Amino acid sequence: MASKDGPRASGTDGSDFQHRERVASHYQMSVALKHEIRKLNIVHLVVWFLIAAQVVVSQLSLVSHEIVASPYRWEYPYLLSVAPTIFSFLALPRNNISYLVISMISAGLFCVAPLIYGAIEMMPVAQQLYRHGKAYRFIFGFTAVSVLYLVIVISVQVHAWQIYYSKKLLDQWFTSTQDKKKK
To answer: DSSP state, 96?
Structure first.
């Protein structure tokens, strides 16, 4: 054993590490994937809070509609996208396969589908802005369609990575389960 102040224990030159146990690769991968999913969940929650704030401020008329635009129709179903994130957070600590599957399926339904609908819904407004330079909805002085398309681009990437990493994590969990059954 080494000590802070004294010499190294006799008979050890630092090359005696081969016999030690190592953490299995699927456990290492599971930890790494969980970390990535948590980061993506936090980014999603930030985007969700921004959309929720816009909807609440607009619906309660807390500020003028000239400062914060009224929400588009796709923003209301997108508010349900917090459900997959909650299931994802619940699945990670105990490797709950059921919650992770529910999270993945509902991410497509409540996250990606409203974003696709939103991109289609705002297309005429974006074309009008591009062709004629006219915009009628603003968010703090920026055109609402530009801000919301930026939100859509970021959100689609976040949700795509969430689903991808969740699938890889599910595969890791199934691999470890199958390995245990073989033994």
So the answer is: -
Bridge partners for 143 per DSSP: 138
More confident residue, 41 or 14: 41
Q: What is the pLDDT of residues 168-179, one digit of tens each?
A: 999 988 876 666
Task: Kindly calculate the radius of gyration of the chain based on its CA atoms and give it in whole angstroms.
Answer: 24
- CA–CA dist 46, 129 (Å, integer): 27
pTM of the model: 0.81
CB of 137 closer than 8 Å to CB of 145 = yes
Arithmetic mean of pLDDT over the chain = 88
Among 105, 76, 78, 75, which residue's Cα sits nearest to residue 167?
105
For every residue of 97-158, DSSP letters joined together read HHHHHHHHHHIIIIIIHHHHHHHHHTHHHHHHHHHH-----EETTEEHHHHHHHHHHHHHHH
Q: Are 163 and 107 in contact (CB under 8 A)?
A: yes
Per-residue pLDDT, averaged over 89-98, amounts to 94
Angle of helix 123-132 relative to helix 144-182, nearest 10 degrees, comes to 140
C-alpha span between 55 and 49 (Å, rounded): 10
Reported as a pLDDT band with limits 50, 70 and 90, residue 10 is low
